[in-house]
Amino acid sequence: MPQPINILHMHSSFDLGGKEARAVRLMNAFGDRARHTIVSGVPGALSARDAIAKGIKYEIAQDPPPLTGGPSVGRFETIAKFMRRFDLVLSYNWGAIDAVMAKRAFAKGAPPIVHHEDGFNVDEAARLKPRRTLYRRIAFGAVDAVVVPSLTLEQIARQRWKLTPPKLHRISNGIATALYARQPDPKAIPGFQRKPGEVVVGALAGLRAVKNLPALVRAVGGCSARIRLVIVGEGPERAAIEFAARQMGLTDQLVMPGFLPDPHRFVGLFDIMALSSLSEQFPISVVEGMAAGLPIVAPQVGDIAHMISRENWPYVQPFENEVTLRDALQALAVDPAARSAVGKANRAKAVADYDEKVMIAAYRDLYETAMGRPGVLA
Counting CB atoms within 10 angstroms of each CB, which of 16, 30, 66, 211 has the fewest? Predict the structure, then answer.
């Protein structure tokens, strides 16, 4: 049996979110054909490792070179030396862009590198920073490929970062849609038990400012329907979300169980999947909600309007404030027939367009091509 490929993952953070969930799914899919080393740009932000399947060979780098700090020849050289021991480097988002710049500065002996851009934090949600745009353009001269999941990001990559095929690739996120057709586990969410007459609104998100989750709390608080809000995820905004719930008198209606693995076990417990993000690209939580047969309520950001079924369009509108979300939630909360019809259409679209088999095959081919080793991850 051939030796496994050594892959280095340079993450801006490895707390579970959309990009981390996809990266872990690919790790699991590659099985024993690869060995993985994971670097998190935020020390201790490692909750996504809980989703790595048993038997997958991986380690968390214990003393990696720092991914943050001012541009420095010495730091770039240290990163470049660290990367040389691997067959392939995968870098993720702005927080790991210095891995790419390190190869640009010290290309000799560097392994192939594929960079993944999945979206922006709150500091670039409204407008990209010109200095970062220039920095990306310079760094991307060293990559073997840049991958984006959305039409919106592909347009940005072409217009702002001056990327074109064959270096630029768009690969839509996918999930195991068949799992979401199963009956959910009623005990999968600690502290949650449906009460008669309640409509359950669910959100899957890292608790970060860009996700704007206090606005979702206020939107639910403004509804006249009886709604239970379940927010699954971890992050630094927990206190702000809980404060918003106290202000709205929703403490007893808010459930925040933290990170939970295997979302197919519990997403079907929701009646509506909701997002309130200031910026998104191709959120996996939307696909998960669609695969579970749920309607989606969200701002019209990123590719969400392209992802959902036509029947769902009235409930995804440009975001002005939480009133926009409130009205969409209220309309669906009081209309179970609409929830059912929209959810059925979403499920059909998810199965047809976003199953993970297509995604995994595309990433496998891209990584093998970057290494010049066809079939090595198959």
Answer: 66
What span, in angstroms and rounded, lies between the C-alpha atoms of 195 and 70?
53
What is the structure's pLDDT at 1?
Answer: 61
CB 33 within 8 A of CB 377: yes
| pLDDT, average across residues 95-117 | 97
Q: What is the mean pLDDT of residues 359-372?
A: 97
In angstroms, what CA-CA distances link 203 with 71, 159, 255, 286, 331? Answer: 37, 32, 10, 9, 18
**Cα–Cα distance, 236 to 247 (Å, whole number):** 19
- Alpha-carbon span 282 to 273, nearest angstrom: 15
Amino acid at 303: D
DSSP string, 4-34: PEEEEEEES--SSSHHHHHHHHHHHHHGGGE
Residues forming a β-bridge with 273? 202, 296
Give the model confidence (pLDDT) of 142-160 as tens digits.
999 999 998 989 999 999 9
Token pair in block for residue 104: 């640009």
**128, exposed or middle or buried, with CB in 10 Å at 0-12, 13-18, 19+?**
middle
Alpha helices by DSSP H, 229-268: 238-247
Q: CB 5: neighbour CB atoms within 10 A? A: 19
Instruction: Record the tokens describing residue 294, joined without a space.
Output: 């749920």
Q: How far, CA to CA in Å, does 147 sit from each of 118, 151, 152, 277, 286?
A: 8, 11, 13, 22, 20
- All residues at 6 or more sequence positions from 108 whose CB lies less than 8 Å from its CB, including other chains: none
